[in-house]
Amino acid sequence: MSSYTYLWLLLLLLVSPVALLVAQADQPEVAQVSMPCQQVLADPTVELTADASPWEVYAPTRSFSTEHAASGTTSLGLSAGAMVGQQISIPPNLGDLFGHLSYRLATGSNGGVEQVRVELYRPGQVQVSGLITTLALLDAAEVTPGDWLQLEWHASAETLAALADYAGAAVVFVVRSLGAEGASATTTQVWLDDLRLQLCQTERSVTLRGVVQREGLPLADAHMLLSHTSATGTRVYAAARSDATGQYGFPGVEPLAEGEHYRIWYLNTPNQARMSRQLGFWAGPELRQLPEQFEVTGLDFEVGDVTLLAPAPHASIGFNHATTLALRWLPRAEPMANERHRACLYDPAYGDPQTGLPQEWCSAPLNPARDSLSVSLRNLSGFVPVPGRSYRWYVRVSSGNQYGASFHERALGLGAARTASLVPAEQTIAQRSIIPMTLEQATLSRTRKPIGTPCSAICNLQSTIVNGISPAQQADWTLMIYVAADNALSDASRAALPKRQLEALPRLAATHPRVRLVSLVDSADQAGVQICSYGPQAEPRCEQDATASSASATTLGDFIALARERYPARRTALLIIAPGNGVGELAYAETTGRAMGLRDLQAAFQSAGLGGSTRLDLVIYQVPLFGNVDVLRTTAPFAHVMVATPDQVWQMTPYERMVALLAATSERTTVAQTMVEIYATELPEERALALAAYDLSRVNELGVRLDALADALASELFSDQANVGPAFTAARDAAQVYDSSANGLLNQLATSDEPLVAAEDALRDLRGFVEHLSNAPLREGLDLRTPAAAQQLAALLLDPQSSPVLTATQRAGLSITEQPIDLSASHGLAIYFPTGERLGEQQSLSETYLYESAPDSRWAALLRLYLSRSLPNGPGGISEALPGGPRVRPGPGGLLSLNHYVYLPLVAR
Asked: Name one Pfam family in it (predicted).
């Protein structure tokens, strides 16, 4: 994909609060961008007939098709060597130029390297000598024929400067195919649709230029923003990418009025993967006046990162003010003049009413050229750590009035000072306050287990556990129970001990012989996993595999395959009990720091032999936040119905009623819907909850309509940004929010008094969002697709016959922190929709969703555009994982402690 992917929305403005990392109580809010832009290509959706078409042929051949269209009814077909385009006018005050197209390679490709190119030629000179520049080049050798894909591009500062010499240009779309020796080869057609070019004008042609470096070397493709601050607010004025020499430019910058200023920003948001050797962001040069000359140059800076040394990620430390505990890091390879560093420690769950951000303590500034980069936590100047809480620390870098933050932050559990490494580092507010466990009670043995064992490791256990139930016996259901508890779920101070709940299974198996029960349990107090079968015999038959881990897709896939083969039944159900998060990670293993993502989950189902006509009848995700679109789309090819929650999970498995229900009926939809009711009644009436059952056969059409909406928004948030942008933001804010940060609150931080409002949750109710968007007062014009796409998706979700949500139970009540909470606007299906804030793990979740483990999707592409416009707000960064790299830990579930009195050992009662 083009190196300019997704940058055609460079002037998109989405209104959001801007509170810079250096706390400023009177920081203004973002305003609307003012540079006027327009779509300049005629017939972008290729709807006119061949005789009337403005698409001029510069080299054959061109065709039109009503069978291949990304939108509308027609698309433009080009064979190898074809060149089509249009003439455009170039104004003298050109400020920006960017565009977008949809393309589809026809099936039957000959294997050559197809190229889709967007080129600019001098007017009337569409030939080699007239080429001004290539705006975009797509090498499509790896593109799967038959799929509609997107290509976006943006003109560099050099291209804009070159176009200043011309009053017009020819925009030409080219298809080429190169054989093995570089000669032209025959190829099938490429279909193009939604060909758009945005041209922006400005009143003045002052250009800001500079060079961005990393560790003293030019940094290419750096994402740069120019912000403008006035008395009415701060807005993103323009955006750019640095070239191969690290140079960037902002042309056409308007004059400054009294009291206004510009600031240049670097954001670590590349097109593909983030670079952890670079700072998370850098608030660069600030300009409070502009000279009259054509250019301002020398706006250079360095974005190389610091290296965090100690304590290690997710360390747990016994602590008091006499403890000698230091935060240590390494300096940057190429520091800037007068550079200073501060170590900062903050509480992600508790707010500071004075700043509107999490409570934070920062050290005095250190000079990396002479000072030891180590800060003692012996005296935190009024910041009092609470035993059992998980904190975060990072390094803030500054040079004069420029500043930035380390790419990584690290979690740090601080407990009462006794011995180190005993206090759990990850707990929600409710778990910290409701269960006051001692350090000795929290201590569990830890045995390191490798990830990714071969099938034989589990499959060889067959000879022992198959004797639990004779294959000759008739069975209505096989219930496979997968307990991934090598984490907080094995800790009596943090969870309800699912292993103890399994003690009811032998009795239930004997009571309901037509329901076969098989379990796999991975816990922190045992090596590897234990697989058990439960039959008419008095005791379960179990065997241990000391090498397997429940965080491995191989382990899950082998368990499903083994259970289906050795315990056949008319219906099969899979119950997964595990930590999880809002971007589809689950089954976190504390001893290895690993977890499964959605791609791993998909691989597990495939390796188990599922897919096509072979599907599980029911999947129950007893996993936090798994009632979301991405989990549905991942699970749909492998199961018929599903039960999950878009919010924090219950962790009380109702085995008694669950097994009795399976014994009573084999109708899977009835089972799924009734299971929602069973789980709901396990919680006290005053507790807020959101649970749902889903028909996975309806997920494909949901995905089609969601993709259409994401494509429309990606095309039109800029082309009619003053119209679509505010509607998009308002619909997001109006939709029900779910507790993705697991702090027991909705978009709030706890304080000693009333909770502090903070946009720190990143899951929204999908139906609520599209309902508000479809009802937004969008004016007609510019051939908008967003209103129709939103209405079509809303119609699907509102119709009980087409919505994947079979039933949803939502209830307002109290949160797990005893605060009132309202989930009455929940419709049971969430979508990952971050605000761009550096709060509530949103940075880490977005990192995982966009660059790590979540499947690619049109929605993810839209989010990349959206997040690329968000200026830093809050102290959060990318959480560093134990094995290295960025990762947020999946949480064990926010309702763990509601019935803790049932499960705590006697000494803790």
From this structure: Peptidase_C11
394 and 276 together in one domain: no
Please report, for the domain that includes residue 131, its CATH number. Answer: 2.60.120.260
- 884 exposed, middle or buried (CB, 10 Å; 0-12, 13-18, 19+)? exposed
Find the length of the chain: 909
Query: Do 220 and 348 belong to one domain?
Result: no
Q: Among positive and negative, which fits the CA dihedral 400, 402, 407, 410? A: positive
- At 522 the pLDDT is 93
Triad 651, 656, 564: Cα angle to 5°: 85
- CA 740/CA 891 separation, integer angstroms: 9
Do 513 and 639 have their domain in common?
Answer: yes
Which residues fall within 8 angstroms of residue 183, CB to CB, at 6 or more apart?
Answer: none
Q: Is 900 exposed, middle or buried (0-12, 13-18, 19+ CB in 10 A)?
A: buried
Confirm if 855 and 598 have CB atoms less than 8 A apart.
yes
Same domain for 783 and 834, yes or no, is yes
> Residue 749 in contact with residue 675, Cβ under 8 Å?
no
Dihedral (CA of 715, 718, 722, 727) sign: positive
Average pLDDT over residues 237-252: 86
Q: Do 652 and 682 share a domain, yes or no?
A: yes
What integer pLDDT is reported at residue 206 of this predicted model?
Answer: 76
882 in a structural domain = no
Report how far residue 710's alpha carbon sits from residue 721's, in angstroms, rounded to the nearest whole number.
Answer: 15
- Would the pTM count as exceeding 0.85? no
Q: Helix axis angle, 766-774 relative to 721-734, nearest 10°?
A: 140
Strands 616-622 and 571-577, by their bridges, are parallel
Domain that holds residue 238: 5-35+204-302
464 within domain boundaries: no
Q: What is residue 324's three-state secondary structure?
A: coil
Answer whether residue 423 is part of any domain. no
* Whether 394 and 525 share a structural domain: no
Residue 345 CA to residue 360 CA, distance in Å, equals: 6
Same domain, 145 and 266: no
State the pLDDT confidence band at 780, using cuts at 50, 70 and 90: low
- Tell me how far apart the terminal alpha carbons of the chain are, to the nearest angstrom: 59
Question: Given pLDDT bands bounded at 50, 70 and 90, which one contains residue 665?
Answer: very high
What pLDDT digit, counting tens, does each position of 555-574 carry?
Answer: 999 999 999 999 999 999 99
The total number of structural domains in the chain stands at 5
* Whole-number pLDDT of residue 718: 64
CA-CA distance, 769 to 713, in Å (whole number)?
Answer: 13
pLDDT at res. 600: 94
Higher pLDDT, 647 or 380: 647
Say if residue 161 is in the same domain as residue 225: no
Q: What is the mean pLDDT of residues 162-167?
A: 78
